[in-house]
Write a structure and sequence with these properties.
rod-shaped, 329 residues, seven-stranded antiparallel β-sheet, single chain, alpha+beta, TPR repeat, 12 helices, Serine Threonine Protein Phosphatase 5, Tetratricopeptide repeat, 7 strands
């Protein structure tokens, strides 16, 4: 705060002396002493807007924001045509992170002093802060309200058609949604997911002491050899565990082979250099593949909606279950 920003005010010599002493303490960074001197001056001249404006500035630096705001409002009441009161109000509301209200105050200040470069700078800065705050809230809402089921609505009807004679499609759908939502939450919290295959085990047939519902596949994508070995193991595991479905989660960053995002024509990749992870759903009647891309928004990791890929062109693993004909007639 420069000396020029502190109002000069007029009054008796003693009042001037108190105010000037306050200004000296203010410039030296002794805001508490400055505020005390402005208070003494106000007792002698309670209708002087400059004194309230100066004390508001001192309270602002002491982070006594409610007191500062009260003084700014009094400044405006005593002299509604003086831009300094609105400027003080704007600075205090900015400190309170009430950016929209602060912006309104600075805009009034500019009306009374259109030449003020400082007020113009504040308006520009506050406009950006208000926009950033709104976007940060939107990002937080998107991160908190993960609704994979909504994104997979069309898959639900496709599943019910494929498995028309059975209710098992509902279990499969819930299994897929839960697996994907867990992966998205992990990505939001840590910016990574572990490469795994989740299995929907049979409640009656699976030997649960022998077969776990999750298999780690850390080495699966190191080379064609590890990929082939892992696939053979998983296919046998799916059969021996009597699993009804499986869901693979694999971060793009760890896949050395197969780099399914490389290629032209039908294999052309449409997601640029975005980081993210693959989700591949496997069942005897239905196979699906998605890529969930990630971006950094307002300093936070944000997953985009799952985007369907052509599994024939981009499959991360070959078919895990022996193909069956649809149960529907």
């Amino acid at each position: 705060m420069t000396e020029a920003e502190l109002g000069s005010g007029k009054g008796g010599s003693e009042e001037m002396s108190l105010k000037d002493k306050g200004n000296e303490f203010f410039k030296a960074g002794s805001y508490l002493k400055a505020a005390a001197l402005y208070t003494q001056a106000i007792k002698q001249d309670p209708s002087n807007p400059t004194l309230y404006s100066n004390r508001a500035a001192a309270f602002l630096n002491l982070v006594k924001l409610n007191k500062a705001l009260t003084d700014a409002e009094t400044t405006i009441t005593l002299n509604p045509q003086w831009e300094k009161g609105y400027f003080r109000r704007g600075c205090i509301l900015e400190a309170m992170e009430r950016y929209d209200d602060a912006l309104a105050a600075f805009q009034i200040a500019l009306q009374y002093n259109p030449q003020s470069a400082e007020v113009s700078r504040k308006i520009k800065r506050l406009s950006q802060l208000a926009k950033d705050k709104k976007r940060a809230q939107e990002v937080q809402n998107l991160r908190s309200n993960i609704d994979i089921a909504k994104s997979l609505e069309t898959l639900k009807s496709e599943m019910s058609e494929k498995y028309a004679a059975e209710d098992c499609w509902k279990d499969m759908f819930s299994f897929l949604v839960e697996t994907m939502e867990t992966a998205v939450q992990s990505w939001h919290e840590t910016s990574k997911v572990d490469p795994r295959v989740y299995f929907l085990l049979d409640k009656e047939k699976t030997q649960t002491d022998k077969y776990a519902p999750v298999v780690n596949i850390d080495k699966a994508f190191e080379s064609p050899h590890t990929h082939s070995s892992c696939f053979s193991f998983l296919r046998q595991y799916a059969e021996d565990s009597f699993s009804g479905a499986a869901c693979l989660i694999a971060p793009k960053s760890i896949i050395a082979y197969p780099q399914v995002w490389k290629g032209q024509g039908s294999r052309k990749w449409r997601h640029g250099q975005h980081d993210g992870f693959f989700v591949q759903f496997e069942s005897p009647l239905l196979r699906k593949l998605w890529f969930i891309s990630s971006s950094n928004e307002m300093g936070k990791t944000l997953c985009r909606d799952p985007e369907v890929l052509d599994i024939g062109a981009h499959e991360v693993l070959p078919r895990l279950f022996k193909e069956k004909l649809s149960n529907s007639s």
